[in-house]
Amino acid sequence: MRRAGLVVAEGLARMSEAVRPGITTLDLDRIGREVLTAGGATSSFLGYGGFPAVTCISTGSEVVHGIPGGRVLEEGELCSIDFGAVVDGWHGDAAVTVPVGECSAEVLELNRVTRESLWAALRTVRVGGRLSDIGAAVERTVRPHGYGLLDDYTGHGIGRAMHEPPHVPNQAPDGPGKGMALDVGIVLAVEPMATLGGPETSVLADDWTVVTDDGRQAAHWEHTVAVTPDGPWVLTALDGGASEL
Ligand code: MG
pLDDT digits over 155-200, tens only? Predict the structure, then answer.
């Protein structure tokens, strides 16, 4: 899974560098395809439920599951890139959100806080922890800012399939310390999504793209993380998470 995770990390780095006003979301997906081929990997996403691309790219008021195409990136919006790779049958899955050109301070702060909520959550993925520690960490980071937190979309277990049990909620209504015990060998994809406005979303007529109902912007960050005897190992970070954990 580390090998798949490194392909994902490299792809997200390459695509992030390419983000700028005027590029299309399909241009970014093509970079993802090149990285998969060069890394001896296949796509987790292509063909999943009929999905036609190797990335999900969600811009502006789109939150997740955007389909790459002719959409041109515009200055001032956030662009979420979600990317999955398979190596020798094992999956890696991660997402970053990149500002397109100059963004407002408000939008940049949403993105910073959402990213921080991911790392706060990843720090809890360790022996002795429980599943709800993850959602509690996300909420603790995001709630004070008043952002919307989607409750219909969660992280997930990951391994031989991209989506395995359990669901990994970004909220913990009953607080931390509840749910499945985290033990060595468990691997999860943790992926908080936050919005500048309300948490209500809809799915567009393409049956994939999730957009905010109020049209306000969203951010989405994700990593695949393994529980080891020494703590969390972030399989989709080039440094395994060392610099952020
Ligand atoms: Mg995922």
Answer: 999 999 999 999 999 999 999 999 999 999 999 999 999 999 999 9
**Interval between CA 191 and ligand 1 midpoint (Å):** 6
Q: How many CB atoms lie within 10 A of CB 166?
A: 14
Q: Which 8-state DSSP code applies to residue 66?
A: P
Q: How far is the CA of 24 from the centre of ligand 1 (A)?
A: 23
Q: How confident is the model at residue 151 (pLDDT cuts 50, 70, 90)?
A: confident
The pLDDT score that the predictor gives to residue 58 is 97
User: Please, which residues have CB less than 5 A from ligand 1, an ion?
Assistant: 93, 189
| Helices vs strands, H then E, count in the chain | 4, 15
User: How many angstroms is it from 112 CA to the middle of ligand 1?
Assistant: 19
Q: How far is the CA of 43 from the centre of ligand 1 (A)?
A: 13
User: Amino acid identity, residue 52?
Assistant: P
Residue 53's Cβ-count burial label (10 Å; 0-12, 13-18, 19+) is: buried
Edge-first strand listing for the sheet containing 231-234: 164-168, 155-157, 187-190, 223-228, 231-234
- Predicted TM-score (pTM) of the model is 0.97
- Ligand 1 center to 33 CA (angstroms): 18
